[in-house]
């Protein structure tokens, strides 16, 4: 019996490899779903007048009012002339950190004349910044 098994197992192994090796086309991996947040307007480098109209886009994420906690959902923040908030940190609320906690993607800002950096940062329902470049965008504009 043991002698028979020692013969049969290698035969099955060879047949298995032969059956699998026959297929040369490997299915292409499904493209990873895009996740991004970005400014649609203004464009990077634009010079404009007050009020500055912002149009923002969220791809592959769900906009939810602040307070609603769900995987892949949250709301946008515009950071004016300041640094991104580190992942895992709560985005503060002040004149440099504007929350769109109602889930909106359209807004207007009035800024002092001159050059400004606008950063777009997505955070969860508790305003906690998420980890990854896909949750960020940045533009520089000049206000007349
Ligand atoms: Cu917030």
Strand percentage lies at 35-45%
Counting structural domains, the number is: 1
Radius of gyration: 26 Å
SS field, number of helical segments: 1
Q: What form results from the Cα inertia axes?
A: globular
Descriptive report:
With 144 residues, this protein is mostly beta strands. The chain is built from 1 helix and 9 strands; from the N terminus they run αβββββββββ. It has one domain (36-143): Immunoglobulin-like, CATH 2.60.40.10. It is globular. Strands 2, 4, 5, 6, 8 and 9 form a 6-stranded mixed beta sheet that branches. A 3-stranded antiparallel beta sheet has the order 1-3-7, with no helix packed on it. Bound molecules: copper (II) ion (CU). Copper (II) ion is lined by residues 66, 75, 77, 91, 99, 101, 123, 127.
List its salient traits:
Immunoglobulin-like, binds copper (II) ion, single chain, 9 strands, 144 residues, 1 helix, six-stranded mixed beta sheet, three-stranded antiparallel beta sheet, mainly beta
């Amino acid at each position: 019996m043991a002698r028979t098994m020692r013969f049969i197992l290698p035969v099955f192994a060879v047949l298995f490899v032969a059956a699998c090796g026959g297929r040369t086309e490997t299915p292409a991996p499904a493209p990873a779903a895009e996740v991004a947040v970005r400014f649609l307007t203004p464009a990077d480098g634009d010079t404009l007048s007050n009020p500055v109209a912002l149009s923002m886009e969220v791809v592959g994420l769900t906009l939810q009012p602040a307070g609603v906690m769900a995987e892949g959902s949250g709301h946008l923040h515009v950071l004016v002339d300041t640094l991104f908030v580190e992942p895992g940190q709560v985005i503060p609320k002040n004149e440099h950190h504007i929350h769109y906690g109602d889930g909106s993607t359209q807004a207007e800002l009035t800024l002092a004349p001159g050059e400004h950096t606008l950063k777009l940062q997505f955070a969860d329902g508790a305003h906690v910044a998420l980890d990854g470049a896909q949750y960020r965008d940045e533009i520089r504009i000049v206000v007349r």
